[in-house]
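Putative glutathione S-transferase-like protein, Caballeronia sordidicola. Tokens?
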Amino acid sequence: MLNILGKASSINVRKVLWACAELRIPFEREDWGTGFRQTDTPEFLSLNPNGLVPVIKDGDFVLWESNAIIRYLASRYAGEALYPTDPVKRARIDQWMDWQATDLNRSWSYAFLGLVRKSPTHQSPNEISTSLAGWARHMSILESQLDATGAFVAGEHFSLADIPIGLSVNRWFSTPFAHPRFTAVSDYFDRLADRTGFAAYCKNGTP
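Tokens:
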């Protein structure tokens, strides 16, 4: 039985839960993180020295980093439909997953922490405005890609990349500010609603 360590509200834990739903992988989950069991204990740090969720234990195999985890699950549990073995198709998926984890995430970090998490150290109006502008610029990149594919982020079919991207789009729409209109992104988010795990792990009331 796959064991997932991390609280269900975490965006990175939700990547793993959504992937499990798509791949029909049974799992057990333990609550770790803020408000639950602490991740700075020797027990948890022996699994992930960064002290971050999620972590999975698949038998004797331990793995951290959310995108690495969902790539592993797709490779381990017959997920070629989501993560094909063809090098070109796989590279395109990896490209968008890595973009989400780096460029896109960095752009929204300050604004999200200030507007949603209400972090007292992220309340500078200028910094929030700068973050929102950068976020919108990155969403315009996604808008262009989705306008080109007319379907999903890496092409005409749903892929592993749509899990982290879909969660980021949910965060975009769930953060309170005046959103620029991105028609292709809105249509894409509606399209994701047909997917297994979307209601439970993406549009589930948690940004």
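The chain is about 55% helix and 10% strand.
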